[in-house]
Amino acid sequence: MIVVVAPGQGSQTPGFLAPWLEDAAVRDRVGQWSDAIGVDLAHHGTESDADTIKDTALAQPLIVAAGIITADALLADGRRDLVGGVAGHSVGEFTAAAVAGILQPTDAIALVAERGRAMADAAALEPTSMAAVLGGDPDEVARALETHGLVAANHNGGGQTVVAGTADAIAALAADAPAKARVVPLAVAGAFHTRYMAPAVDRVAPVAAASAVSDPTLPIWTNADGSRVDDGRHFVDLMVRQIASPVHWDAVMASFQQTGVTGIIELAPAGALVGLAKRGMRGIPSVAIKSPEDLPAAIELLQSAQGAEKTEVTA
User: Fold this and answer.
1) 72-76, long-range: CB within 8 Å, 24+ apart, which pairs?
2) Alpha helices (H) along the chain
3) Where does a domain end: 159, 185, 211?
4) CB atoms within 10 A of CB 159
5) How many domains does one find in the chain?
6) Residue 35 DSSP SS3
7) How far is CA 49 from its chain centroid?
8) What residue numbers bound the domain in which 65 lies?
9) How far is CA 187 from the centre of its chain?
């Protein structure tokens, strides 16, 4: 059973859309999305620098657009039938919702664009940030967070916790890291998945409520608690609430293991979730799709599930 996962904010890098836009049909589609949301996705995904695309209002639609484009290429020619399920990390849940058929791609881009703008505006109210804490004793890490007035925003598993709070508190934690822990500031512009994002929830909720939603046609798991969700409207409601509540990617990976997942494919801009899986789901094959050149390896892994099923039936 192969699952497809979509990364969250912080995965973007300058020029990451460029190789995908070499396809004329993809360029046209991205152009249509750009017109719909008033953001030149092609320009920002090919020419803007790291500081520019750190802007939440740009990063989020860029990441979701890249994920949808990648999924379309991966799952073409009937390969969607080989997918065992999908999940996304934070804003990647919008990508996953589009792949699972909960939201139409254009609606997913429009909704995530509003999410990005709302979160950027919320972040502008007070200087806040996030950092990944790698390793360290969990109790010592918890005490350090309490000391600096920080909270765990992303429970990522594999020995990684993303913490959030004021920018000064993040800097203080980095300067006084817990024993045997490493603190890595993230390329995000606010304390996402915390109380600081409450104004964004209030703003996005009515937009989401007005969006056309269908029940998923692929299994999909939520960041809220790692459970599988079969009701499309409930999944969208959970995504909205998630703006100001913690991400439990560790619980999603636990559900993968309990479900019998045998491989993971990460959509562009890939790398972060495959890295977590290598630590939290040791021994599970994975492919990170960073550019179209990675598609053959991903397709091979996807098709391996079909081969395994045939072997089981034959046996």
Assistant:
1) 73/292, 73/295, 74/4, 74/265, 74/267, 74/289, 74/295, 74/298, 74/299, 74/302, 75/4, 75/99
2) 24-37, 41-46, 50-53, 56-74, 92-99, 105-123, 138-148, 167-175, 198-209, 232-242, 249-259, 272-280, 295-314
3) 185
4) 14
5) 2
6) helix
7) 21
8) 2-123+194-314
9) 14
**What pLDDT is recorded for position 24?**
96
End-to-end CA distance of the chain: 18
3 state DSSP class of 86: strand
CATH code of the domain in which 159 resides = 3.30.70.250
Asked if residues 229 and 237 have their Cβ atoms less than 8 Å apart, the reply is no
Looking at 185, 207, 234, which one is the last position of a domain?
A: 185
**Pair 158, 284 in one domain:** no
Domain identity same for 202 and 291: yes
Neighbours of 13 (CB within 10 A): 12
d(CA 179, CA 187): 24
Mean pLDDT by 10 residues, the chain (315 residues): 94 94 96 96 96 92 97 96 96 98 97 96 92 90 92 89 93 90 84 95 96 97 97 98 95 96 96 91 94 97 72 38
> Is the pTM value of this prediction over 0.85?
yes
Q: Same structural domain for residues 156 and 51? A: no
Which of 75, 76, 79, 99 lies closest to 87, judged by CA? 99
Task: Give yes or no for a contact between 90 and 246, defined as CB atoms under 8 angstroms apart.
Answer: no
Do 202 and 170 fall within a single domain? no
Q: 248, 160 in Cβ contact below 8 A?
A: no
Say how far apart CA 68 and CA 99 lie, in whole Å: 7
The catalytic site residues sit at 90, 193
